[in-house]
């Protein structure tokens, strides 16, 4: 039985009986040989010629549970050497926590087909070239690379996967980072299983068909009918990743399955898709989740010391937050559950995300504060399903503390995070708040701070053509966070300053100091003595000077012809440049960049520049503000044009002319 929740409407439906089937392995079609790079997408270095998958279920009497069997077959054309990376194949196999139920790969076949002087040459993969990589105790990858690659090679492989993991059936990725000529998927689902089916992505299906297949599943001596679903898409554009996006899986066209119900042979029903009230009870009673939130006794002996200088609830929350930041080091493992329990994490001074932030919640509760857990999915993990509770969607937990009419979201895993600022990887759509006594609810975490940078240059142009002065940079929000993290990689601030001097092309740093490195609630302030060699003396009648040498925009971050997914920056941002330059006497302003005031629609952003000369003082100011954390795909071309104009503006020089010259 199938329940369909289709995000993108099925625009083309074929109700007639479809004869979906696999294509013959190693048998080329004339169109495969003729297909050229420019026939599909001039920027792609490879293309999928044909792709077929079939997923069905069998009951394993020996093991006593249902298994999913997936047959997969694909043929790819490599246009040039830049496409060789698509000949490196990785096939994952997963285990459950017990290690007993594991995916099994078999029947792997692979061949490279080359056309040499009109003759078809097939080079099969030697089975000895299959390698297994133990990624973790839950994941093993089987890897191989196709032999004898050349421009125009056609590679082809197939395999069978037998899996005990039936919850998500088989996700079918219609879209990939190279174009596809054809992709076809068959799903045979026994009537005793009900799945929610979701089509994600911007493109409609070309083929959708449903029919009944009698007796395709056998259990306990009984034959069960199946829903035989066929999904297909043709001429699928490549998905091109660009800056400022969350996980690509959020936007690629794909078909997702989620197990909702199992109907037993005796007529009873097991509801797999639970209500949140059931999940709430499960989480609150879970020893590694709610059980850890309740362990406020862990802080009983140390709480007076932690709160010694706290005068109000906000001060208590900040004191506990700083204590956890400093006393449990993140072991680089994610997770919504505690790995070692919070008491052990405090004693060992190490733990996963669950250990750290569930400990923070327990500490806040011990201090009499109203604290809750917030489960979320990180940006590279994809967005969560907000229609049905799917706990496996969540891979992270943070704390929420409610003080007065305000609340603060806290992640104590990073010692450089200011109070109330979540790391950028946590800003990813909806999150679920879990309270020990009240029903859970949705929130949408946002950045609590704008990411801002201000550069202030006070300098003098000397007769020998040198520009010298002091550059002071104030950084807030994520900009300051990134700089503090980078500073931590150096033994001294002097080493970091040397690094900045090496990568900075606009000026030379003669010396400097950095303030506020440890005070994460304050701005990070960098003081640099700088020098720019502008000219070999000032003898020329005209001096050309480009004022955009501080963090100049040289490359447009938006270059696609079309972007079907949002521009997600995580936080609003603002960058200012203020210059005051004392000139030698006897100069006037002959030409300068136009004073600019460019805005994005809906108050989405602004770019301002202003240049003027008053006496012997040249002043220049610049503002680049992006006021939204996220921009819809419809705003993409406006953003692209916005940055294109900025790049052109920043090519224009100031021209100074000697008076009377």
From TrEMBL:
Keyword Disulfide bond: no
Keywords tagged on the record: Signal
Signal peptide: 1-20
Keyword Signal assigned: yes
Top-level taxonomic group: Bacteria
UniProt cross-references to SUPFAM superfamilies, sorted A to Z: Cysteine proteinases
Domain Transglutaminase-like: 305-405
Pfam families: Transglut_core
Protein name: Transglutaminase-like domain-containing protein
Protein species of origin: Parapedobacter pyrenivorans
Upper lineage: Bacteria, Pseudomonadati, Bacteroidota, Sphingobacteriia, Sphingobacteriales
